[in-house]
Specification:
heterodimer; A: mainly beta; 4-stranded antiparallel β-sheet; globular; B: 7-stranded mixed β-sheet
Chain lengths: ~120, ~110
């Protein structure tokens, strides 16, 4: 069955960096586009980033552009999110999610919490 | 950026009742509209994609309709496990992919 397992979250000071990982299994990872979505405590869902299956096309939300970078290693079935210059309003649960090819996200990981605080 | 507005913010209903949730887009999204369910402490779960197609394993009591700018998620008869927050999402004119603010379906 499809599994997405995020890791790398934690408490980090403002201005510092963190790299999230998402280990995928149960499907042909190299053939699917992937996303990162976040959810601040008590708030709604916010799309963060997209990467095409071949890793060439990438999009980032304006709120993270220039600070966050999505990447993937298809040989390791792993998705990444490099987060630099972290701010307090980046505090959120970060989910990786699989694109189903029909304009929606059909499988989600359990999420990893990032807390930005001094 | 396409803005999705969900209404109502909260829907108070009893088990067995019919739930009707609305999602309105600031411009046409064709039928590229999805619905998700999220329970506390859990990741979102895809219910409906491309406006009216049920995702794998989703019960028939969930149905989606609409096109253009106005969409509806209907739960024909609420089960206890259906009380949750529901989000709509579009990927018509993107980036960005956007979500609505959510509708909480609570027990009356």
């Amino acid at each position: 069955q499809v599994q997405l397992v995020e890791s790398g979250g934690g408490v980090v000071q403002p201005g510092r960096s963190l790299r999230l990982s998402c280990a995928a299994s149960g499907f042909s990872f190299r053939n699917y586009d992937m996303h990162w979505v976040r959810q601040a405590p008590g708030k709604g869902l916010e799309w963060v980033a997209f990467i095409r299956s071949d890793g060439i096309n990438k999009y980032h939300a304006d709120s993270v552009k220039g600070r966050f970078t999505v990447s993937r290693d298809n040989s390791k079935n792993t998705l990444y999110l490099q987060m630099n210059s972290l701010r307090g309003d980046d505090t959120a649960v970060f989910y990786c999610a699989k694109d189903n090819g029909y304009n929606s996200l059909d499988y989600w990981g359990q999420g990893t919490l990032v807390t930005v605080s001094s | 950026e396409i803005v999705l507005t969900q209404s109502p913010a909260t829907l108070s209903l009893s088990p067995g009742e019919r739930a009707t949730l609305s999602c309105r887009a600031s411009q046409s999204v064709n039928n590229y509209l999805a619905w998700y369910q999220q329970k506390p402490g859990q990741a979102p779960r895809l219910l409906i994609y491309d406006a009216s197609n049920r995702a794998t394993g989703i019960p028939a009591r969930f149905s989606g309709s609409g096109s253009g700018t106005d969409f509806t998620l209907t739960i024909s008869s609420l089960e206890p496990e259906d009380f949750a927050v529901y989000y709509c999402q579009q990927r018509s004119n993107w980036p960005p992919l956007t979500f609505g603010g959510g509708t909480k379906v609570e027990i009356k």
